[in-house]
């Protein structure tokens, strides 16, 4: 998957930024305003804070727009111990863990620890969220249905995420599903999650994508 990345080089750490994956959650700006300042050019100054602090704030970026590479022998970002999918209220699916984005042909196109994936159907950068859920007026409280099985804790291993052509996101691998309030509601190894915005059973796919003629690569 070819993405246009901006690079910001400090003596101890290099920061990369994928502007199209940034939905302005502002974790970075709130966390280290001396490093991340959207009103300045360049907006990232990696040398303005300790490299460990820069790395820690980048690891909080929920979309994966920011990443880093240490030049001082410091540790790389480690994936969290479990794969977690959080359904945001009126917003995307936030994924954290050992993540593999896979093409419908089965090829891994991106490995990451953080992803924000569109579930309203309006993003122009699918499968990523580009923030258009707001303009599209997408509404869903992010409360998985009570029928979902109770969480029993996810196992270990990578989570493969396949955006199926004109259909849902197919999850394969251990994961825990959490509602917008952070409460765990489902742990499993397989799921089809709606990415067209039309399911009556959100966050799961109920086949409505066919009825509305959803198209997405
Ligand atoms: S934390 Fe990530 S998504 Fe949020 S503003 Fe910074 S770069 Fe953008
Ligand atoms: S992708 Fe939305 S109902 Fe299937």
Structure in words:
Helix content is 8%, strand content 29%. It has 217 residues and is mainly beta. It has two domains: 6-70, 2-Layer Sandwich (Alpha-Beta Plaits), CATH 3.30.70.20; 84-212, CDGSH iron-sulfur domain, mitoNEET-type (Ribosomal Protein L9, domain 1), CATH 3.40.5. Strands 4, 5, 6, 7, 8 and 9 form a six-stranded mixed β-sheet that branches. A three-stranded antiparallel β-sheet has the order 1-2-3, covered by helices on one side. The two termini are 13 Å apart. The model has no long low-confidence stretch (mean pLDDT 94). The structure holds iron/sulfur cluster and FE2/S2 (inorganic) cluster.
What keywords describe this structure?
binds FE2/S2 (inorganic) cluster; globular; 2 domains; 9 strands; 6-stranded mixed beta sheet; single chain; 3 helices; binds iron/sulfur cluster; 217 residues; Ribosomal Protein L9, domain 1; Alpha-Beta Plaits; mainly beta; 3-stranded antiparallel beta sheet
Summarize the structure.
The protein has helices at 27-31, 51-58, 208-212, and strands at 6-9, 13-17, 66-70, 84-87, 93-102, 108-117, 159-163, 169-178, 184-193.
Superfamily at the CATH H level of the largest domain? CDGSH iron-sulfur domain, mitoNEET-type
Q: Tell me the strand percentage band.
A: 25-35%
Using only C-alpha atoms, the radius of gyration works out to 18 Å
Cα(first) to Cα(last) distance is: 13 Å
Number of strands: 9
- For the record, the count of structural domains works out to 2
Q: How would you state the average pLDDT, rounded? A: 94
Could you state the oligomeric state of the chains shown?
Answer: single chain
Structural class: mainly beta
CATH topology-level fold name of the largest domain? Ribosomal Protein L9, domain 1
Low-confidence stretches: none
Q: Enumerate the distinct ligands.
A: iron/sulfur cluster, FE2/S2 (inorganic) cluster
Shape: globular
- What is the architecture of the largest domain at the second tier of CATH? 3-Layer(aba) Sandwich
């Amino acid at each position: 998957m070819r993405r246009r990345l901006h690079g910001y080089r400090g003596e101890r750490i290099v920061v990369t930024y994928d502007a199209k994956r940034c939905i302005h959650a502002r974790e970075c700006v709130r966390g280290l305003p001396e490093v991340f300042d959207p009103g300045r050019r360049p907006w990232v100054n990696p040398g303005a804070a300790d490299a460990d602090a820069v790395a820690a704030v980048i690891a909080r970026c929920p979309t994966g727009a920011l990443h880093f590479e240490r030049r001082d022998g410091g540790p790389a970002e480690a994936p969290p111990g479990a794969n977690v999918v959080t359904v945001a209220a009126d917003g995307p699916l936030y994924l954290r863990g050992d993540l593999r984005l896979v093409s419908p042909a089965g090829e891994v196109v991106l490995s990451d620890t953080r992803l924000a994936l569109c579930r309203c159907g309006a993003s122009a950068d699918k499968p990523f969220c580009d923030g258009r859920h707001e303009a599209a007026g997408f509404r869903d409280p992010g409360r998985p249905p009570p029928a979902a099985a109770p969480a029993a804790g996810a196992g270990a291993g990578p989570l493969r995420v396949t955006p199926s052509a004109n259909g849902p996101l197919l999850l394969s691998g251990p994961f825990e599903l959490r509602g917008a309030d952070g409460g765990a509601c489902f742990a499993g190894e397989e799921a089809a999650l709606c990415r067209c915005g039309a399911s009556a059973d959100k966050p799961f796919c109920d086949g409505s994508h066919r009825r509305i003629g959803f198209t997405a690569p």
